[in-house]
Structures are given as C-alpha cells and as structure tokens.
Specification:
alpha+beta; 3 strands; 143 residues; single chain; 44% helix; 5 helices; 11% strand; three-stranded mixed β-sheet
C-alpha cells in the first residue's frame, strides 16, 4: 500500500471474528478449550452478542473512516450444518452460508470465494485464497 494516499490500519479483528464464529459452532470440551485459549470471559451467548455489538458500532453510520464488515461461511454442499449455528452466525456476525462444492470443484469454489472477498473488502486483501478438496467449511472474515 506504500505510495497510495490515505491510512491503512491492520488489526486482529478479522481473525478474532473468524475464531468467534468457529467457537459458535463448537460444543462441549472443544468450546470450553476455545473459550479459554481465546480468553472469552463472558458466557457463550454474551460473547457472540458482544461481537455483534462491536461490529455494529464499527460499521455504524456517521463515522470519520471507511470500514466494512465482510463475514461469510463457505460450506461444502450438503454438509448439514446445524440451523442454530447458521442462525447465530447470520444474526451475530452477519455471516450467511454460501454452499460450494470443494470436493468435486475446488477451483470453482475458489473462483466463487475470491471475487466475493475482493468486492466485500474494496479489493483487499490482494493475495487470493486457495482451497483444496479437503475443505468443508472455511470461515472467511475480511475487513
């Protein structure tokens, strides 16, 4: 970005949001361990509510900066994600599910994901993601 006008801020928000969504899909010991490692001090529902509130404030109107939230779940067609998880991801993180076929057409999945990311982030990041046939639910969060 050197040589381009304006300021650029890099933050851990994108990975935090992606891991928050991942935590929302975890249960039992895995969810407990994730909450401990990620230092989520609030009860689970309040944690996801806090993410929603924070993202809403950052993306609110009348701000002296440009900020866009772009969260999505890219799932393997027919993988059968729980409706409760999909609803939480949609409501709290603004992440809808987009189904693609990683197993039969990884390149087609990549061609679907990368333009969405570019459009949602004003062409950032400039390095496109790659996918493989072992993917079933990559979480994409971009700012």
């Amino acid at each position: 970005m050197q040589g381009e006008p304006g300021n650029l801020v890099l933050s851990p928000l994108s990975i935090s949001t992606a891991l928050g969504m991942t935590h929302a899909g975890a249960a039992g010991e895995t969810a407990d361990q994730m909450a401990e490692v990620l230092r989520f001090a609030l009860p689970e529902e309040r944690t996801h509510e806090a993410f929603e509130n924070f993202l809403t404030v950052l993306d609110g109107a009348d701000k002296p900066y440009e900020f866009s939230v772009a969260n999505a779940l890219w799932g393997q067609e027919g993988c059968g994600l729980l409706p409760e998880f999909l609803e939480l991801a949609r409501v709290r993180y603004g992440a809808g599910l987009r189904e693609v076929d990683f197993q039969a057409d990884g390149e087609g999945a990549r061609r679907a994901i990368n333009p969405w990311v570019a459009k949602s982030t004003l062409e950032l990041p400039r390095r496109p993601a790659s996918v493989s046939s072992i993917c079933s639910l990559p979480v994409r969060s971009a700012r």
